[in-house]
Amino acid sequence: KHYKDIPTVAFYEIYNEPLNISWNRVLKPYAQTIVNTIRNNDSKNIIVVGTPNWSQDVDEVINNKIDDKNVAYTFHFYTSTHEQWLRDKAIKALKAGVPLFVTEWGLSEATGNGDINLTESGFWLDFLEQNKLSWCNWSIVNKDESSAALLPTTTELSGWNENQLTQSGKLIRGYLIQHNSKFFK
């Protein structure tokens, strides 16, 4: 009720990263209840529903989607852990008409730390672009880990320069500038 008339609320995400639990027996019934509750208060905004196994098993939704025309399904990945096998799950879901929204992905390992695999990162960025998937990168923090966009010494809340960014932050910034420059000329 609180958010229904706030124009800046574009979508609701329920259950961001479900563990490895059943879509049919647990997640879908739970999500359908929450979706119905939201729809009693907000009939139009997108609802993003988490999928099993930390929002990786999007293929389990095929032929068993939530009964609502404005629902997308959460898909998460980390480029230094997840490779073609996970892209294949997403491709299978997309081909079956399952709408996906990548509410979390990182250039690091799934732990949020570790190496950044530039080759896999390129494959994943191409995958996002080719499939026109909306996404949110993990994460804009100054934590000392490889998924963080900001160096631990960065204390400003905005207006960062390249010297305040990590490798991940620089890569994402460069990608966003390259793919969105047509909007800022």
Describe the protein.
- 32% of the residues lie in helices and 14% in strands.
- By secondary structure, it is of the alpha/beta class.
- The chain has a 5-stranded parallel sheet, with helices on one face.
- Helix 1 (23-39) links the parallel strand 1 (11-14) and strand 2.
- The chain starts with 10 loop residues before the first strand and ends in a 5-residue tail after the last helix.
Structural topology:
Elements: E1 11-14, H1 23-39, E2 46-49, H2 52-55, E3 71-78, H3 84-95, E4 100-106, H4 118-130, E5 135-137, H5 167-180
Parallel strand pairs: 1-2, 2-3, 3-4, 4-5
**Residue-averaged pLDDT, rounded?**
95
Shape: globular
In spatial order, strands of the major sheet run 1-2-3-4-5
Strand content: 5-15%
Structural class: alpha/beta
> What ranges have pLDDT less than 50 throughout 5 or more consecutive residues?
none
Give, in order, the helices and strands: EHEHEHEHEH
Q: Number of helix segments?
A: 5
Q: How many β strands by DSSP?
A: 5
Radius of gyration: 17 Å
Helical content, roughly? 25-40%
Largest sheet: 5 strands, parallel
Q: State the distance separating the first and last CA atoms.
A: 40 Å
